[in-house]
Amino acid sequence: MKSLYLVALSILIISCHNQGLEKFEEKHEPFDHFFFQRAFPDEVVNYKEMERTLKAAQRFSQNQLSKSSSAEWNIEGPYNLGGRINCVAIHPDNQDIWLSGTAGGGVYRTEDAGENWEPITNALSHLPIGDVVFDPTNPDIIYIGTGDTNIPGTVWIGGGIYKSIDGGESFEYIGLEECRIISKIAVNPNNPDQIYAGAMGLPFEENDDRGLYRSDDAGETWTKIFSVSEDSGIIDMVMNPENPEIIYVANWNRIRTNFVSEVSGDEAGIFKTTDGGDSWTELTNGLPEGPMGRIGLKLWDGDYNTLFALYVGPDSQLQGIYKSADAGDSFETIATDFIPENALGGFGWYFGKIGVNPFNENEISVLGVNMYSTTDGGDTWFQSVPDWFTYEVHADKHDIEYLGENDILLATDGGLFRTTTGLNPGGTGWVDVDEIPNTQFYRISADPYTEGVFYGGAQDNGTTGTPEFGDQWPRIFGGDGFTPIQDPVVPNYFYCTTQRGNFWFIDSENFDVFNLADMGIDSEDRRNWDSPFHMDHFDNTVLYAATERVYQMEFAPFGEWVEISPSLVSEDEENASRRNISTFAQSPVNGEILYAGTSDGKAWVRPTEDDNWSEISEGLPGYYVTDIKASNFEEDRVYLSVSGYRDNDNTPHLYLSNDLGTTWVDVTGDLPEMPINHFEEYSTTQWFIATDNGVYLTENSGENWSRVGNNMPFIVVNDLAIDEIGNTLAAGTFAQSIWSISLDDVLTPLSVSNQGREDFDIYPNPAVANVSIESAEEIRGYHIFDLSGKLINASNEINLGTAMQIDVSELPQGTYIINVHLANSEVTKKFMVSR
Questions:
Q1: Of 675, 665, 672, nearest to 645 (Cα)?
Q2: Is residue 522 one of the residues assigned to a domain?
Q3: Which of 316, 393, 411, 384 shows the shortest CA–CA distance to 103?
Q4: Has residue 649 been placed in a domain?
């Protein structure tokens, strides 16, 4: 494992150069992926149903008294890689206290200038943060606006404004839930009971919740005081602190559905009030005309009559920067000749922020993929951060705040960075200061060799793994990360996945890196953003990958891909590019049995190597298939989960088949309705699921469910992995990194009799030197496999009797599967070897 990390940096550089252009072109993709999963076959996610399921899950959790609900999760990390931070607030009286608002994981607080951080909003029901502010007259009062102001996708919708009166120790909801995305909050310093809130509204549709709101009673009641249209809202706001009656707002046209992304419009512009919001005037003198995109505003602290504005054009590139020295009566254009045309990467809707040094009006910064700054008012510009692909300062900049003239905080897609030496060409001096576990994971796995070691593929943060020393998780590979696979036989072989079906092989011993997708997969195939990738349970030299069809590679990693299925998706031309295989499974009991689920609601099985693929979708609802999982114990058993929010039709989301998918049974039981993202079978009766609202467990085959743990917020969990050596469950969240929990603290111990057959026994379990098996039937042979599917030991003797002892003293510590052949049946069990 150590050698893998030693080559991480060189691999990272290779991957970044290969994927840099893709990153710009695919910025919509991760959010489209979430949208499509939760909306298909509809155009728009039903947010009311989404809210209903969240509240139902919260009520369900409050009523639990099970063992699993009383256990506690531990955060494994990473802390150092971070995730997207949308906004930063600095305590007005103590510059060591900062608040960071994350895209999906809530608000974190530091009281020692970034040395240590703690979450302060885990009890809230909505953790995407749009803005966080201190009351300038009493910093114990904090306001938080929820909802992701960058509006990339549906899971980042907010639930209004929350207020703390004790410095962030507790929060209460104070309204504007229907506004969904609160972009900006301002408190009148002369009358702190007067609060202003900008809202973008629900982005999926035109609605009248967009606009600017005012409360005159510290959030008790709210009144909408300004709006322009039902498809535009307030994306930015600045208040003159010397005369709080003067407020400027930026209006933005934004509609975001599964098939539409409107990022500009005729209503984009800057509006001003001089009477606290009773009347408004649009500012036009010297500003661009016609449809425009997002607009960022900044007042210069040296003279509050000086206003800066950054305009994003209809092409989502930088349109221009404008400066007013007369409180908006007129604007002059600031030269941007030395800023690259692609500074915003073609997705300026994701940025739209401008920075101005409060001590120097000529120091201006454009926040984009990199950051470009001028110190002479625009005559010259320079890149003021290192190249994004070095990850010295993460790509995609979202907020900039000044602690001093040369002391600056910068919020990015990969955390918070600080320089105390000011801005300079090349961007030297930046240091990562967040240590916040808000990395967003798609897929995770447990290391087959070492207890407590996990790998994960993360949104915009590549592939990473538990560090061998210290707590700094290495970035093993770049891009957007998905399925990681540590070869269980060859320790220096590692596989990982990047966006849209790129499958990478890494030999850490020989410094060999190449893309397996180039070895026979049709480049014209339709591929999922999170394309399935699997290592054979029984042979580590056999791999499977899925596009719109299934491929197999023998003699991996140096073989060629061979198609082993036709296209398994609908030929319907509507949204054809979105129709692909979303999940794949191989039976751990019989490796010839393969399954596939698709993004357009279909399920398939290949019973044996010689059989054709058969559709097994009858009885399923036709929603996006998020997971299909063959049983670890029963050859004909398979599980399937789907995702989607419908109009309170109580559609179940989890199914079981005991006949290879010929018939399906709803096993939702009393589970609150919600999308299920991943399924994990621990025993024939004990199952775990990862959902949009945390992790759930059943111990009676789906009849009853309980939410696992008492300290995980209501956040999206995409994937689960069981560390067989440490007997822990890991959860890959899309908000707060990787969490783990002891299975001993969660599960009720099973007697052998209810693990499958009442007439069969295996003991001791865990075993040290020998394991005994006893049965009421005659034992006629057995096979023992490790968890990779490798055959370890076998006996095919006849008339072995009804009891026997097997020597396991030479087996390494770990978990094994034994398949016992009885006179009239077979039994498959797990057992552990412990030293």
A1: 675
A2: yes
A3: 411
A4: yes
pLDDT at 664 over 60: yes
Which tokens hold the place of 783?
Answer: 């096979």
Domain identity same for 771 and 637: no
Alpha carbon 425 to chain centroid distance? 33
- pLDDT tens, position by position, 763-809: 888 788 888 888 888 887 888 877 656 677 777 665 567 888 898 88
Determine the average pLDDT of the residues in 385-406: 96
- Domain span at residue 592 reads 2-28+438-679
Given CA atoms 345, 354, 34, 393 in this order, what sign does their dihedral have?
Answer: positive
Q: How many domains does the chain have?
A: 2
Predicted local distance difference test score (pLDDT) of residue 66? 66
Mean pLDDT of the chain: 89
> Would the pLDDT of 650 be above 80?
no
- How many alpha carbons fall within 13 Å on the CB side of residue 779? 25
Q: What CATH number does residue 641 fall under?
A: 2.130.10.10
Residue 92 CB: number of other CB atoms within 10 A? 14
Residue 295 lies in a domain: no
Token reading at 627: 């997971």
Q: Does residue 695 fall inside a structural domain?
A: no
Q: Which pLDDT tens digit goes with each residue over 536-555?
A: 999 999 999 999 999 999 99
Phi, psi of 126 (to 5 degrees): -125, 120
The pLDDT assigned to 65 comes to: 61
Name the domain boundary from 679, 706, 722.
679
The two three-digit tokens of residue 394, written as one number: 């993460």
Cis peptide before 764 (omega within 30 of 0): yes
Domain with residue 807: its CATH number is 2.60.40.3080
Tokens of 298: 């900044």
Alpha carbon distance 550, 594 (integer Å):
10
pLDDT tier, 21 (very low <50, low <70, confident <90, very high otherwise): very low
| Dihedral sign of CA atoms 331, 336, 337, 343 in order | negative
